[in-house]
Amino acid sequence: MGHGFAVVDLETTGLFPEYHDRIVEVAVVHVSRSGEIEGTWETLVNPMRDMGAQSIHGISAASATQAPPFSAISGHLSELLRGRVPVAHNATFDSRFLAHAMAETNTWCPPSTHWFCTMQMATTFLPGHRSLADCSSAIGEPLDGAHRASVDAHATARLLNRYLSLGHDPVWWDTWVASAGDWPVSTTFPTGWIPREHASAAPRSVLQRLSVQVAPVQGGDSGALNLDYLALLDRVLLDRHLSVTEADQLFRVAESMAISADTVRQMHHAYFDGLVTAAWADDELTDREWADIQSIGSLLEIPAETIGASATKPAQSSPAYTTGFRLQPGDIVVITGATRRDRSEWFALLTELGYVPKDNMVKKAKLLVAADPDSMSGKAKLARDYGIPIVNEDGLERLVGLMS
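Below the sequence we write its predicted structure tokens.
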């Protein structure tokens, strides 16, 4: 006789694992034979590709990069399913997706014929209801926070509990529990699972990391401005957004050159002062320029009083440390990920403005536009290898003059 049930929910980059969609989050809830919840396990999963429909699952690439790849958790996941009836709401989808992922890691997965589907069984226990949200409402347990694996798995577990309590033929339920058997399992040791909130914690800034991790070098780091660091800083701030990946790049440059946190702070101030001087060059500070100063100042950890003082023209001019990056007619612009504006619309607009939009990354590209600048797509990886700037959609709108 089996041990009970294992409720599974997956969040994925899309619908088709055979076309390279991947799991980005998994949750397992153990439920006893009588319907009580016995334990919960959940983790984000690094899909090693772009994140797909982030508007649905709400997981950023920055969070996913901190998570284990599926191959690192598949053995533990297999152990969690052993001896239990696998359950899902729309088990056809979850069993197919999980089987594909498990097959890629040569890990045992319960066959699709052994899954219990709470959606299909709603026709018996909750006639007229089908979706997880509708079924949850019908049993008086409204679904709050859908499309997080643990939330959906717990909702499905509560639904299973209600089915069990409705007094259906106990022999029928015993047959289901017995069907789990004692399947073979991987001997892979489990890696650390990372729940969503752990990966979503704000990462330490470049200055914080340097203060802790880079020891001063005797005779080095004289405090002189490092032009390589400033050039990278200018490039990553093109879209007025500092992604986790870009912060990592800045940290690695500073670390490799043994640049102290004090010198980095000095360079951030120098870059900021140059930006303020450029904004006041015509003796007028527009609302857009002021918003830009505030945004950059915050990203560079400039003190609030210094940022506030920039609303008045500085007494002294400071040199600019920007490359003046501009898109020119004929420049190749590559787009990756599920952008807010439909890609075909972006292509038409960029073509009209004289640029050359492409789907595939080439070395001659001037810019990569990513729905998520921390994207792990193949195009994003190549752009980083080629030293091509990556910006979000707001950054592209700013560069082509569409931002008001």
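Residues 214-220 have pLDDT under 50 and may be disordered.
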